[in-house]
Amino acid sequence: MTNRRAFIKNTGLLALSLPVAKTNFFTAPAHKLPAFGIQLYMVKEDMAKDAPGTLKKLGAMGYSQIESYGSDKGMFWGMSNKDFKKLAGDSGLMLISSHYNDEPGGFEKQAEKAAEIGMKYLICPWKGPQKSIDKFKEFADEFNRNGEICKKHGMRFGYHPHDYPYKKVDGQLPIDVLLANTDKNLVDFEMDFYYTVTEGQDPEAYIKKYGDRFRLCHMRDVLKQRLPKNSEEESACDLGQGIINYAHLLATGLDNGMKYFFVEQSRYFHETPLQSAKINIDYLKKLKLAEI
Q1: Nearest one of 191, 228, 194 to 210, comparing CA atoms
Q2: What are the residue boundaries of the Xylose isomerase-like TIM barrel domain, all occurrences included (predicted)?
């Protein structure tokens, strides 16, 4: 617990948690997010019960982009790719991307279906912790191959790091190895600000160092008062209720090629997932991004 609190002091991230009004650097709004997106995993129970109704509610809140995932019914929720696209579109939602699982027909079949309806990305959501850094080099080769497949179909391939790529293996950070060993013309990354911060890394430094490698992101906040390690999503909270200065980070992202911004949260307090989705988008609607 003590070590996880200490990262705020030791990594220079305290500046990212300062209230906007208390420093002149963060006062002048430069731009706004181009669109508000949400990862459907956040509302998976609602989607399983009533996909049309859930999408309609998300659209009414003001979300205009969605990212799907490899649910039990697949990334198109038991529908054809075209039917799901139409269902989302009827609620004013564009299906930008999806996390994928291994499915019959392999990765290329999924890429074909995604490209057919104009999706921009297929994203690997998980590889898990590994005992050797060489495994991450193997993953990088796999990502490059998948990137070639996506490119052939007019799409992009991405990888979504969780916490484990920010934990050293053989003296190296897997995230650095993956960035170094993937082709920037084939593989993009989807930063999860929550995991980057809670693992003691500086998301702004990564964004600036690697430029437009981070084209997508997941957004949730980190509690000021940290919860015990290993509790479920131990320190996640709604946007604006924690330490992350999104006014600054999102402006940095936009200035460095980040295009897609998805709310994604899997720990809730008194809110239902849909209520939490509303709290998050209301925060983003009011957020004035800092001038970088």
Answers
A1: 191
A2: 107-286
